[in-house]
């Protein structure tokens, strides 16, 4: 089994009705057991890359492999956290229900949720300091609290690879610190974490590896090398 947890090969994706490709011939693999960031301006295709990888969108060309396998063969090992703004928070579930969803791959859809599953979900809520809010409706929580619950769902799954789309968007400083601590704990446990991130200034302090993206790969490698002025100018210029 390949040790590459996330391996993107020649991936191109063109949305119907758009004049240009959203992703053009992307090649990148995230180093195992490291914290990686995907950075690029709005519309760079960061969310599209995750969605294509998770099979939520069909790419015209290329593929993404997880641990050297197709997603369907290792789905339980891969945890995906969508962008918070893309989720319907009016859905009538409480925080514990959401955390429990992380266990569905283990439980099996339509099977009974047992006490041990609830305990696992509760432990995940405790890790993100949301146990006190377990029975609150998800829509009644603040942005930072919703993000924590979302993270608890990802943690409950106990995956080996975590894909997280903008976990730091619209949250308070305390939640940001907590999430960063959890990333480091995941790394210490040998897990691989890939985060779509938009704050260039904090990126170097948090992440080992950076993929700089604007529809195509602008640069990738050690954070300190990728986040150079030249690269950033290319990535953030109007023409990408
Ligand atoms: P990012 O996450 O980097 O901000 P996205 O992946 O969301 O960027 O979007 C990349 C490009 O694809 C943008 O130009 C966006 O407008 C376009 N796009 C995203 N979703 C769709 C869609 N469902 N249909 C058509 N175009 C889309
Ligand atoms: Mg996005």
How would you sum up this structure in a few lines?
The chain is of the alpha/beta class and 240 residues long.
Q: Reading side by side through the largest sheet, how are the strands ordered?
A: 5-6-7-3-8-9
Report helical residue fraction.
25-40%
Rg, please? 18 Å
Give the ligands present: adenosine-5'-diphosphate, magnesium ion
According to DSSP, the number of beta strands is 9
What oligomeric state do these chains adopt? single chain
Based on helices, strands and strand pairing, what is the structural class? alpha/beta
Mean pLDDT: 91
Overall spatial form? globular
Write down the secondary-structure element order. Answer: EEEHEHEHHHHEHEHEEHH
| Percentage of residues in DSSP E strands | 15-25%
The largest sheet is: 6 strands, mixed
Highlighted features:
single chain, 240 residues, alpha/beta, 6-stranded mixed sheet, 3-stranded antiparallel sheet, 10 helices, 9 strands, globular, binds adenosine-5'-diphosphate, binds magnesium ion
Would you kindly provide a written description of the structure presented here, covering whatever features stand out?
With 240 residues, the protein is of the alpha/beta class. The chain has helices spanning 46-53, 71-74, 95-101, 104-107, 115-127, 143-156, 173-188, 200-206, 223-226, 229-236, and strands at 6-13, 23-30, 35-39, 61-65, 78-81, 161-165, 192-197, 209-214, 216-222. The chain has a 6-stranded mixed beta sheet with strand order 5-6-7-3-8-9, with helices on both faces. The protein has a 3-stranded antiparallel beta sheet with strand order 2-1-4. Helix 3 (95-101) packs parallel to helix 6 (143-156) and helix 5 (115-127) packs across helix 6 (143-156). The chain starts with 5 loop residues before the first strand and ends with a helix. The model has no long low-confidence stretch (mean pLDDT 91). Bound molecules: adenosine-5'-diphosphate and magnesium ion. Magnesium ion (MG) binds at residues 46-47, 83, 165.
């Amino acid at each position: 089994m390949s040790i590459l947890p996330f391996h993107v090969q020649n991936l191109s994706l063109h949305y119907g009705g758009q004049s240009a490709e959203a992703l053009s011939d992307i090649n990148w693999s995230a180093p195992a057991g490291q914290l990686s960031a995907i950075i690029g301006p709005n519309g760079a295709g960061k969310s599209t890359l995750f969605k294509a990888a998770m099979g939520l969108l069909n790419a015209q060309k290329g593929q993404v492999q997880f641990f050297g396998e197709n997603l369907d063969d290792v789905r339980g090992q891969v945890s995906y956290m969508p962008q918070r703004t893309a989720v319907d928070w009016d859905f009538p579930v409480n925080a514990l229900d959401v955390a429990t969803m992380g266990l569905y791959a283990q439980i099996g859809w339509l099977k009974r949720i047992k006490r041990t599953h609830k305990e696992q979900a509760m432990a995940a809520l405790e890790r993100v300091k949301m146990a006190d809010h377990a029975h609150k409706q998800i829509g009644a929580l603040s942005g930072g609290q919703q993000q924590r619950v979302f993270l608890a769902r990802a943690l409950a799954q106990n995956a080996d690879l975590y894909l997280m789309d903008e976990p730091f968007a619209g949250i308070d400083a305390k939640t940001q610190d907590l999430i960063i601590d959890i990333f480091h704990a995941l790394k210490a446990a040998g897990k691989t974490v890939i985060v779509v991130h938009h704050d260039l200034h904090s990126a170097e302090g948090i992440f080992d590896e950076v993929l700089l993206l604007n529809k195509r790969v602008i640069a990738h490698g050690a954070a300190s090398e990728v986040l150079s002025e030249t690269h950033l100018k290319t990535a953030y210029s109007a023409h990408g």
